[in-house]
Amino acid sequence: TDSVTIIRGALDFQDKVAEDAITPLDKVFMISNDIILDRKTLNEIYLCGYSRIPIYDALPLKKFSTNPILTVEASTSLVDILNSFQEGKCHMALVVKESNPIGIITLEDILEELIQEEIYDE
Ligand code: ADP
Q1: Is the peptide bond before 54 cis (omega within 30 degrees of 0)?
Q2: Which tops the pLDDT comparison, 8 or 95?
Q3: Regarding beta strands 100-106 and 23-24, do their DSSP bridges make them parallel or antiparallel, or are they unpaired?
Q4: What is the position in ligand 1's atom list of the atom closest to the CA of 50?
Q5: What residues are in contact with ligand 1 under a 6 Å CB criterion?
Q6: What is the spatial distance between Cα 58 and Cα 64, in angstroms, rounded to a whole number?
Q7: Which positions fall inside the CBS domain (predicted)?
Q8: Atom of ligand 1 nearest to the CA of 30
Q9: Measuring CA to CA, how many Å separate 113 from each of 18, 37, 64, 107?
Q10: Residue 22 CA to ligand 1 centre (angstroms)
Q11: Looking at this predicted complex, what is its ipTM?
Q12: 57-102 pLDDT tens trace
């Protein structure tokens, strides 16, 4: 990353919306709230490597439990989402389009749009 790339990312940032930066639902590691936390499941959770795992009601897939997750429309601007994340409650949001979940977005996804590069964390 260099300054020119960051400035270009910052200029484009205004026009970007949630849908431009999501991790699509089929790539999201999540678990049903009626799962049994046996050794196998705990191991899968450990191996997935993510620090936050969305939990969904078995059916229908529209109410997340545990910590309430912020929900944003696919057309919400990244600027608005960044502002919500800055309030500090949660740095992950569920992205919905026409009331259906289409993916998730985290602070890291937004920062990647700003710096125009992937961030690799451990
Ligand atoms: P973590 O804190 O778990 O490392 P980040 O918030 O840093 O996760 O996000 C890193 C990337 O992984 C982002 O692209 C984000 O959308 C994605 N991500 C975060 N949690 C999950 C999950 N449970 N399943 C799939 N992708 C995820």
Answers
A1: no
A2: 95
A3: antiparallel
A4: 3
A5: 23, 27-29, 50-53, 104, 106, 108-109, 121
A6: 10
A7: 64-122
A8: 23
A9: 11, 36, 27, 10
A10: 10
A11: 0.92
A12: 865 545 545 667 899 999 999 999 999 999 977 899 999 999 999 9
